[in-house]
């Protein structure tokens, strides 16, 4: 049964990340998920110091707050003239460093280290269950990540047209009266919640990988956003299933194998995509040269 739970958790993380990851790829902000997953460390430590508890609810609240601050600082620096990638690098390294200092100063006597607060392990997620009335209703990760997936699905479904226009042509969106910055921060909030809700159970590597790789693969396979989102979710689910069995065969990291499978699928799309594949482009170029 644990096998099913692990695959289900991986698939839910993949689908949740794919919904927002496609918009990040289109906006050329793919590494924002990596930035958030590292910069939330001081929020986790501060939440522990204030509450005196390692309860995941307090941790998530602190991490989500710092995640939103991270997004705000990145946008503020970018609007001040700093390049987008430089803004991301400066903010997440600075906040991560502050978190490392806080961990080393205030949590020496507590089981709260970088591995504990930042890098989860999906193999252990099925054992952390929720019980109601003495009866287990499943792993906490399934409910947490499932709720995040449902939230992303509802918000993006309600404002799909606005997100789409803002991603492809922000100037046009502003011209027709769409509050571009509002939807930018709404999307970044979804990314922050998705990252924070997922990495406690499955680890930062799996979250960041699922935010970027399936969406980038789907980008190579279609030019239609709705199809891109669907393909991205499908690739994420396939990566979760095949990655788990690959980890079982080779006795390797489950999260690492899932992202490895996603990377292999990306390479296949890169070379053999009907529209953007390297092989197809060479064939078209050769055919054109022959005709000339």
Automatic annotation (TrEMBL):
<dbReference type="InterPro" id="IPR001626">
    <property type="entry name" value="ABC_TroCD"/>
</dbReference>
<feature type="transmembrane region" description="Helical">
    <location>
        <begin position="141"/>
        <end position="160"/>
    </location>
</feature>
<feature type="transmembrane region" description="Helical">
    <location>
        <begin position="228"/>
        <end position="247"/>
    </location>
</feature>
<feature type="transmembrane region" description="Helical">
    <location>
        <begin position="86"/>
        <end position="106"/>
    </location>
</feature>
<dbReference type="Pfam" id="PF00950">
    <property type="entry name" value="ABC-3"/>
</dbReference>
<feature type="transmembrane region" description="Helical">
    <location>
        <begin position="56"/>
        <end position="74"/>
    </location>
</feature>
<keyword id="KW-0812">Transmembrane</keyword>
<feature type="transmembrane region" description="Helical">
    <location>
        <begin position="253"/>
        <end position="279"/>
    </location>
</feature>
<keyword id="KW-1133">Transmembrane helix</keyword>
<feature type="transmembrane region" description="Helical">
    <location>
        <begin position="31"/>
        <end position="50"/>
    </location>
</feature>
<keyword id="KW-0813">Transport</keyword>
<feature type="transmembrane region" description="Helical">
    <location>
        <begin position="6"/>
        <end position="26"/>
    </location>
</feature>
<comment type="similarity">
    <text>Belongs to the ABC-3 integral membrane protein family.</text>
</comment>
<keyword id="KW-0472">Membrane</keyword>
<keyword id="KW-1003">Cell membrane</keyword>
<feature type="transmembrane region" description="Helical">
    <location>
        <begin position="172"/>
        <end position="196"/>
    </location>
</feature>
<protein>
    <submittedName>
        <fullName>Metal ABC transporter permease</fullName>
    </submittedName>
</protein>
<dbReference type="InterPro" id="IPR037294">
    <property type="entry name" value="ABC_BtuC-like"/>
</dbReference>
<feature type="transmembrane region" description="Helical">
    <location>
        <begin position="202"/>
        <end position="221"/>
    </location>
</feature>
């Amino acid at each position: 049964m644990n096998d099913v739970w692990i695959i289900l958790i991986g698939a839910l993380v993949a689908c949740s990340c794919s919904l927002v990851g496609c918009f990040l790829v289109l906006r050329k902000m793919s590494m924002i998920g990596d930035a958030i997953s590292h910069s939330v460390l001081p929020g986790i430590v501060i939440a522990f110091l204030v509450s005196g508890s390692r309860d995941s609810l307090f941790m998530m609240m602190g991490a989500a707050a710092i995640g939103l601050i991270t997004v705000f600082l990145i946008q503020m620096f970018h609007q001040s003239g700093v390049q987008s990638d430089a803004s991301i690098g400066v903010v997440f390294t600075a906040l991560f460093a502050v978190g490392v200092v806080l961990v080393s100063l205030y949590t020496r006597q507590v089981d709260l280290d970088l591995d504990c607060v930042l890098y989860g392990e999906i193999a252990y997620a099925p054992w952390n269950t929720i019980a109601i009335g003495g009866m287990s209703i499943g792993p906490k990760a399934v409910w947490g990540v499932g709720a995040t997936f449902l939230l992303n699905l509802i918000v993006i479904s309600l404002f799909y047209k606005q997100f789409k226009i803002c991603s492809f042509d922000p100037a046009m969106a502003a011209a027709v009266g769409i509050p571009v910055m509002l939807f930018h921060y709404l999307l970044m909030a979804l990314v922050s919640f998705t990252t924070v809700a997922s990495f406690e159970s499955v680890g930062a590597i799996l979250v960041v990988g699922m935010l970027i790789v399936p969406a980038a693969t789907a980008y190579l396979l279609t030019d239609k956003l709705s199809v891109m989102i669907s393909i991205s979710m499908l690739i994420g689910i396939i990566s979760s299933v095949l990655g788990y069995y690959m980890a079982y065969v080779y006795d390797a990291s489950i999260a690492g194998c899932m992202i490895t499978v996603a990377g292999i699928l990306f390479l296949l799309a890169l070379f053999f995509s009907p529209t953007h594949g390297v092989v197809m482009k060479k064939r078209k170029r050769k055919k054109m040269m022959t005709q000339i």
